[in-house]
Amino acid sequence: MSTQALDYVSSLQNRFGTIDYSQWQGVRQEFYSYVKYPTAGSNTITFFADTLGQNNVTRFQTNMPKANSFGQTYFLIKSIHTGIRIANAALNGTGTGVTTYSTLDIDNIASDYLNGFLEAGYLDFSIGSRPFLQIPKPFLYLSPLASEPEVYGRGFSLMTTAANNQQVVQTDAPLVTQASGRSRAFIIEPSILVEPEQAFSIAINFPTGSVPITSTNVVNDSTNPLYVGVTLDGILLRPLQ
Question: Is the pTM of this model over 0.85?
Answer without folding.
Answer: no
